[in-house]
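Inputs:
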Amino acid sequence: SQQGEEDPQALSIQEGENATMNCSYKTSINNLQWYRQNSGRGLVHLILIRSNEREKHSGRLRVTLDTSKKSSSLLITASRAADTASYFCATAYGNNRLAFGKGNQVVVIP
Amino acid sequence: DAGVIQSPRHEVTEMGQEVTLRCKPISGHDYLFWYRQTMMRGLELLIYFNNNVPIDDSGMPEDRFSAKMPNASFSTLKIQPSEPRDSAVYFCASTNKGNQPQHFGDGTRLSIL
């Protein structure tokens, strides 16, 4: 079965609000990555968190990783209309491949 | 720097025709991946190469699909004969090290009529 499963949400929020999405996986990982995909474009890497890290920040992004629960969350603070996109988590589990989840669609209303 | 370049961006063809998708990875990247994205199945890995050698093609749907990487700067994904169920967006991605962030092209949107 595919690893890297986001909560299958379509999230609609107002500009300025925070957006949170979750991802769960099934087996041990080397790292977990989050990607963004704008409509009609390829995926763009946002942030990588290693299996021995618990939290990581990059600008308005905050990622947490709980290896005991095999889950991760991505928080986007102070959302902007430009954050409207689909967000994917991907797990790397040692064989040079990434397993992508189905994605969460986020709509930020100006 | 140029990113991953895919061509064509859009392809519409009739069932039974041969389709060839092309990809130029980022220079210096040793890994190249082909994915297929559909609403129903999400993003599926079809095949990946390391140093131009196919490593894992277990995701290739059937014998109608084939992929080659004749050199470090070019790869093709071929479907022959094409079928309507092959309609999807096909992405190519590259990275300089396994398990590290991948750089995606903007994909080829394929429609088989």
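The longest strand of chain B covers residues 42-50. Flag for discussion at group meeting.
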